[in-house]
Amino acid sequence: MPSTQNLEYEQGAALTHKQRERLAFIDFQLYFLGELRRSDLMERFGISPVVATRTIAQYLSLAPGNCKLDKQKIYRPTPEFKPWHTHSARQALATLAQGLTLSLGHDQGPLLSCELPSELSMPKVEILALVARAIHQGKVIKIRYVSFSSGETEREIIPFALVSNRVRWHVRAFDRKNEKFLDFVLRRILSASILEDDEIAKHESAVADSEWNRIINLELIPHPSLKRPEVVLLDYDMPDGVLRVDVRAANVGYLMKLWAIDCSPDHSASKENKEEFHLWLRDPLSIYGAPSVTLAPGYISPTLAKAS
């Protein structure tokens, strides 16, 4: 029996590019979202109901047993589902996060000479698919997870958003073990399964995550230690000298670290390396209480500042 990686090539070698694109879309919908409607194909490709039905039938002939039609006329992946298309985590995340068109090739080059930094850690595609499906369908998942503080543990979580800090991807979720909302690094999830019949309580849903729903209005200005602040004004298009950015409180620490923002109250984080920080958070109190605030460069809690 051919491996999953070879199924598409061996069974679909005679397909046209247009056919392969449609079939890969079906495969993606089933794998990462856990559902496919005939209307999804019609809207995505501008095809008629007859052509959409024929395309689904073609997919089922190439990947028999991968999905079944339920009472709501929605195709669902079966427990025996095996991807027909070889999905990469990088392409899947681009499709999920930005709505980019699913690419069929893995060696397509840029239109111009460009160099983009790679994320150092990409999730396993099978874990990403299950987590994405749970987010899309509003399901509880049971995971085996490894952390620095607790080692390997089994947890039940309710995921609702994927987040990237440009180094690795994590999922924002309610953790029933700790009874609070936390960030789980996708790469640290060893295994996962969807608990189909578990109901989600209101306090476990995204609407109850106060730090996710709290939007912080940041005011960033050129760092006071810079000799030529006018350069920074040009870099960030700051005609009035202030860059205003809205971020979720749950993510603010990650972003301050990623953007290299000096968050010290006296803009002193730049003493060791004066070239590292181009921007300073004008009001460090604005990020007080955010869960990831300890990651913010130079940040000092107001309580500690008073004590010193």
How does this model look, in words?
- This protein is of the alpha+beta class.
- The chain is built from ten helices and eleven strands.
- A hairpin with a 3-residue loop joins strand 3 and strand 4 (151-164).
- It has helices at residues 4-12, 17-33, 38-45, 49-62, 89-98, 125-137, 210-213, 229-235, 252-258, 302-307; strands spanning 67-69, 75-77, 140-147, 151-164, 169-175, 180-185, 189-195, 215-222, 243-248, 261-262, 279-281.
- It folds into three domains: 4-87, Arc Repressor Mutant, subunit A, CATH 1.10.10.10; 125-209, SH3 type barrels (Roll); 214-307, no CATH class.
- The longest helix is centred in the first third of the chain and has 17 residues, at 17-33.
- The radius of gyration is 23 Å and the shape is globular.
- The strands form three sheets. Strands 6-5-4-3-7 form a five-stranded antiparallel sheet. Strands 9-8-11-10 form a four-stranded mixed sheet. Strands 1-2 form a two-stranded antiparallel sheet.
- Helix 2 (17-33) crosses helix 4 (49-62) and helix 3 crosses helix 4.
- The N and C termini lie far apart (69 Å).
